[in-house]
Amino acid sequence: MNQKKPDLRAAIDIGSHSTLLLIAAFEKDETGKEKLVPKIQKVEICRLGEDIYETGKISKERQDELANILAKFRSTTHALGATINEAVTTEAMRKAENSEEVLDTIEKALWKRPRIISGEEEAAYTYRAVTEWHGEEIVTIDIGGGSTELSYQKKSISIPVGALLLFKKMGAIPGPEYKAFAKETLKNNPVKAFAKKSVFLVGGTATALAMVFLNTPTFDYEKLEGIEMTLNDLEMTITRIVNLSKELRGALPGLGGGRSDVIICGLFWLRSLLERLHVETFRISTAGLRFGVLYPPLPEVPEPEKPKRQFPFQKKNAQAESIIKEEHAAE
Fold first, then answer.
1. What are the Cα distances from residue 211, in Å, to 68, 207, 245, 263, 272?
2. CB 142 within 8 A of CB 162
3. Residues 6+ apart with CB under 8 A from 99
4. Same CATH fold assignment for domains 9-116 and 119-292
């Protein structure tokens, strides 16, 4: 008897530092719930954000590099009989002065025009992806190349700070000026609503951190998913990376392909966020935006009507009207 082939779906996330491909299928777990299971995941460094911070536009050279990456992703997807259901772009394209030109380039390579999504949408999609696996009573933090998204239930914020941006401003290892920068940035972007809750870290910084921490040379989402780390674990991992030369940092698990340049900045920023959130531990999730955009939209739940406030004189009037009605009824 022929086994039914899974209905493969694909999503592409074009970020400020990396471009990611996910090919996945919905499968039922032991409880009967449908879960999005990854079949193929690929990541390529593209660094679109570097051009934005230097010129405000994405250069022709960078567009050509991105087009080559996306053409390979398209070929892989189509060879497996999958459909590219979603393609989204984030902070670099939100800021690019020539975003329409870049979208044209992407469309030619991918045969699909991507959406530029807002930071809040990015946060909400990421939260949806992680909560499908880990439940809703969590905060998600996604540190990307150009922005950071935090989500908890229906509240989402996007802070225009990421690992690549910090690297461009401060170099591979932030100096004394970083502390004042982080304090000022977080003062202007209040995160109090996300404090003292269970935190899941998502994105390239999360994956790289987990691979270094576990010393695992290959990406294995089942091995990395849900691992817990303490602030002390984070501090020791930062120290381990900082104490190595640039060449040796690049040889660490998860830090190849140019990620070793920006990882320390990403981890400094993560430490600042966790301290501000007053949490001692956090967990890693390999889910993220590329998963979230493949889930069907959640049904709209109408907001319950708030009871109208009645002032004392209104209550007295209502009581008087009720007495008058009763008297008339008795007559």
1. 27, 6, 19, 12, 21
2. no
3. 93, 116
4. yes
Query: How far, in Å, CA of 92 to CA of 56, rounded?
Result: 9
Per-residue pLDDT, 182: 94
pLDDT at 207 over 90: yes
Tokens 């193929």 -> residue: 40
Domain boundaries, the chain: 9-116, 119-292
9-116 has CATH 3.30.420.40 classification? yes
Among 255-264, 309-318, 320-329, name the most confident range: 255-264
If residue 13 lies in a helix (H) or strand (E), which one and from where to where?
strand 9-14
Would you place residue 1 in the very low, low, confident or very high pLDDT band (cuts 50, 70, 90)?
very low
Amino acid at the residue 262: V
Q: Which helix (H) or strand (E) holds 67?
A: helix 60-79
Measured between alpha carbons, how far is 201 from 229 in angstroms, rounded to an integer? 10
Q: Tell me the per-residue pLDDT of 101-154, one tens digit each, with 9 for 90 and over.
A: 999 999 999 999 999 999 999 999 999 999 999 998 999 999 999 999 999 999
CATH number of 119-292: 3.30.420.150
At 249, the amino acid letter reads R
DSSP result, 92-134: HHHH-TTHHHHHHHHHHHHSSPPEE--HHHHHHHHHHHHHHHH
Q: In sequence order, what DSSP letters do the residues of 228-264 get, joined into one string? A: EEEHHHHHHHHHHHHTS-HHHHTTSTT-TTTHHHHHH
Give the DSSP per-residue string, 196-238: TS-EEEESHHHHHHHHHHHT-SS--HHHHTT-EEEHHHHHHHH
The whole-model pTM stands at 0.86
d(CA 66, CA 14): 9
Per-residue pLDDT reduced to its tens digit, 84-101? 999 999 999 999 999 999
Task: Count CB neighbours of 124 within 10 A.
Answer: 21
Residue 40, number of CB atoms within 10 A of its CB:
15
